[in-house]
Amino acid sequence: MEMRDVPSLRDRLADALSGHTADYLEIRVEETDATTLTYRGRSLEEAGRTSNLGGCVRACVKGGWGFVSFNSLEGLRAKVDLAVRQARLVGRETTTLAPVEPHVDFIIPTLVRDPLTVSLEDKKRLMDEYVEAAWAQSSRIQTTNAGYGDARRKVTFINSEGSYLEQSRCRVSARVVVLARDGGNVQQSRAVFSSTSDYDAIVGRHAEVGAAASRAVALLDAAPAPGGEFTVICDPALAGVFAHEAFGHLSEGDNVYENERLRDIMVLGKRFGRPLLNIADGGVVGGQPGTFRYDDEGTPTQRTDLIREGVLVGRLHSRETAGKMGEAATGNARAQSYRHAPLVRMTNTFIGAGDSSFDEMVAATPLGIFCRDWYGGQTTHEQFSFGCAEAWMIRDGKLAEPLRGTTLSGNLFTTLENIDMIGNDLVWAEGGGTCGKGGQSAPVGQGSPYIRIQNALLGGK
Amino acid sequence: MANPTTHLADLSLHDLAIQLLDRASGRVELAEVYAYDTTSTPVDFEANRLKSLETKDTRGIALRVVKDGRVGLATTTRLRAGSDLDQVVADAVALSVFGAEAKFDLPGHIVPTPVTIYDQATSDLTVETMVGLGQEMIDHVRAYDADILCEAGVRRAIESVVLVNSRGGEGAYRKSSYALVIGGQLIRDTDFLSIWEYDTQCGVTIDAKALAEAAVRKFEMAKPIAQVRTARMPVIFTPRGVASVLLSRFGVSLSGKSVLQGSSALSEKRGETVFDARLSLADDATISGVSGAAPFDDEGTTTRRLELIRHGVVDAFYYDRQTAGLAGTETTGHGYRGAETLPSPSTSVVCIAPGETPLSGMIDGIEEGLLIESMTGTFAGNIFSGDFSGNVHIGFKIEHGRIVGRVKDTMVAGNIFADMKDLGGLSDTADWVGGSVRSPHILFRELGVSAKV
Questions:
Q1: Which tens digit of pLDDT belongs to each residue from A402-453?
Q2: What is the pLDDT of residue A261?
Q3: CB distance from A288 to chain B under 8 Å?
Q4: Do A295 and A391 have their domain in common?
Q5: Which residues in chain B are closer than 8 Å to A228, comparing Cβ atoms?
Q6: Residues A203 and A297 in one domain
Q7: Contact criterion met (CB < 8 Å) for A378 and B377
Q8: Does the CB of A458 have a partner CB in chain B at under 8 Å?
Q9: Do the domain assignments include residue A148?
């Protein structure tokens, strides 16, 4: 991926960092270029191109942080000075950052077919076809909202310990949301295609767009889901969101490290689920939205087991949270952009495969609900909720009448224990999700097999 | 970096906008430049103590053009030299080939509504004062219960906007915003209680101590845990509950864009009574001192108060210029934009009129019901249908006219069209929720409540 050549940037950054009295300093510089096509109904509503250049300085003095972000790279030294002064105003303790070997590295993704080599005409033609594929399904389709996007991002990182990293990333995606309507009854479904390396991955998928349109239309005739407690089978996409919301956030070190009571609750070795449950996270998992070689503090990413055979065995860290807890940094410090300091957050989170087939899970469920695909999720740590797009009743071990989407909710401490069957194939949700935390959003990968949860709470009438 | 002869960083925001407009004007039928410059200085406390000081400067520019009758957009924060501006023009022109057919004109004069949204006192706040306010709020909450792990924020931002177009329209404003947030987490066994209070204004007029005291009162109310059964029962949404759960449903249903597309359930209901006769909802960007206010929208239309629902009747939808052009109507001054997108219809400051019932009277009349402050998961589901469903995050059980404790593991579901035709009532006072919503408490006669047994 060819980005703008910046031969002197490394020297300028190194120069701006030298000679300050801080315990730790880093500078990040980010350049992005993105193109989007947005459709309302059958017509292209917005064609836009966006470029960004910006940077930030982060300083730590006696445990206190200063952070300065900017768009102009002029006067960098003064910006470093300001960050150091701010950190000094805050710092009252000692700086404890988990050690990370300095790295010098240049990461350029290997692209199968670079979206930038495809003409905008071709991209528009593809989206026109997808939109028409949706409309062709039924006269009950009210409208479609579709979008194409590709983006390149290059982040340059330098710190006062000798690390210098340049990392480039690429993403291409297409989505079609279909709304079907019958009087006041409005239902929706969607198809999302995405890749970090290959434009062709989003090409030729008209049948899936048509299927999404058919699902939206079918939902018009589905009954609302009932409320109350049920045995629920989640498809891999929904179960991936469940792993993220129900458990992932509580494994983030920043929630735990200064919270004594939570440290007691989240003590390593504690049992959270049955022996069939395994949950892990890692930026090294290939080709997912949360895949990268180094995090935004320059720590190499890894795979971190969080729950192994039902028992809490690990958590996610930045250098600060790891240092304060006497654990190792895990490569989970991520910033949305140069406008933000990194937060501890997930990368690609997944539930490990078990040994049941989907058919076995349904057959073993006398009365329950099968929930498919997702519309977001949310957690307050103890309680979480997440939306499913569509559902079916399960009666006498067989899939029965279709239901509309609903919201599932649960309590971390009881729901994980209630997972009693796990499917035998791990599937990653295409395009993953966007996780919001602390005013920042970040792309994350979510993977899981089918899972069955006893006594899940559904919101309904 | 390239070796620029002039640094764009040295130009005023106005001169930067004019430079870009001049480069674009000769090449297109219409050009509009939206330029912004924001400096924010958040002071954040975590785990009871000062954690970080930040200074964030953001400067960016957006160019919308109409060429051969089609709309193109390019935006950038890569502002080093004149060649970066030329690239923006080239991008916008190149994209216009694929853009929508333009159905709008731009104003030759931008006439600002007189509204006060800048307070010098906010600019003049010192970091030391901000740190002191944060500490004061934390001390107040911890004096009540030292087991509460507090977080606080004292945040100040100054935003400058310049809007110029090739019809000769020019406008600029400066906005200050000041926000306080105080809250914390109280963990007992495996019960996690998180309470937050916040307020945002243009001036430094927020009472930090009163805000901290409001958080304390809520912690106190939330300490006992009450039981709930699965049933239909009366539910009161507090102003925050209204803002966080219900308003997004009204927002998409009243948007001119959803109406044009037919995705709004209100598309053909203008002039019809859809809601309770006591429900009136307006959008009003002209209220001074409120951070959601503005003298004109992001495409230069003078802002004004717009009644959307009047006594239960759908009275109007809100529009930007392009959507209004497509729909054969006029813009209502609701063309707002993100840093990287075209203007599109959006609300500014949503005001729901108060009713006639005192809150205490509302609660008194409930034998068994809920009072809901916030829910999780309500963004999910099908927003166009008016359905809302989620897990109660902060909510209280009402028994025999009294609040008896906090509820847990409780789901609530309803629909704004079905369940707001005949309301139990609206409280006689409306409260601000941040700088963009003012609402009374709203009582639903009956909603579906599901509880874990």
A1: 998 888 888 888 889 999 999 999 999 988 888 888 889 999 999 999 999 9
A2: 85
A3: no
A4: yes
A5: 230, 450
A6: no
A7: yes
A8: yes
A9: yes
Q: What pLDDT, in 10s, does the model give residues B414-452?
A: 999 999 999 999 999 999 999 999 999 999 999 999 987
Asked if B314 contacts B271 with a C-beta cutoff of 8 angstroms, the reply is yes
Same domain, A199 and A244: no
- β-pairing, B49-67 vs B70-76, is antiparallel
Question: Nearest to residue A304, comparing CAs of A290, A315, A288?
Answer: A315
A405–chain B Cβ distance below 8 A for any pair: yes
For residue A291, give how far its alpha carbon lies from the nearest alpha carbon of chain B (Å). Answer: 25
Does B77 contact A45 at a Cβ distance shorter than 8 Å? no
Lowest mean pLDDT segment, chosen from A254-263, B3-12, B370-379: B3-12
Establish if A117 touches chain B: CB-CB under 8 angstroms. no
Chain B residues within 8 A of A92 when measuring between CB atoms: 49-50
Domain stops at, among A171, A202, A220: A220
CA-to-CA separations, A53 to A195, A339, A392, B23, B78, in angstroms, rounded: 24, 11, 48, 21, 5
A3 within some domain: no
The residue to which tokens 């966080």 are assigned = B244
Q: Is residue A4 part of a domain?
A: no
How close A431 comes to chain B (CA, Å)? 18
* Cβ-contact A26, A157 below 8 angstroms: yes
pLDDT tens digits, A349-358: 999 999 999 9
* Same structural domain, A297 and A410: yes
Which domain-ending residue is among A198, A220, A242?
Answer: A220
- Contacts A–B by Cβ distance under 8 A: 274
ipTM: 0.91
Judgement on whether residues A354 and A236 belong to the same structural domain of the protein: yes
Give residue-wise pLDDT tens across range B192-202: 899 999 999 99
CATH of the domain at A20: 3.30.2290.10
Say how many domains are in chain A.
Answer: 2
Residue A234 lies in domain: 228-459
Kindly identify which residue of chain A lies nearest to residue B50, measuring between CA atoms: A90
Minimal C-alpha gap between A459 and chain B (Å): 5
Residue A1 covered by a domain: no
Residue A383 to residue B409, Cβ atoms within 8 A: yes
Asked if A291 and A210 sit in the same domain, the reply is: no
The confidence score (pLDDT) of residue A227 equals: 85
Are A188 and A280 found together in one domain? no
Dihedral (Cα; B229, B230, B236, B242), 10-degree rounding: 130
Residue type, B272: E
A308 shares a domain with A187:
no
Please list, in sequence order, all residues whose beta carbon lies within 8 angstroms of the beta carbon of residue B186, skipping any fewer than 6 positions away.
B145, B147, B148, B149, B192, B193, B194, B195, B219
How far off is chain A from B114, nearest CA to CA, in Å? Answer: 32
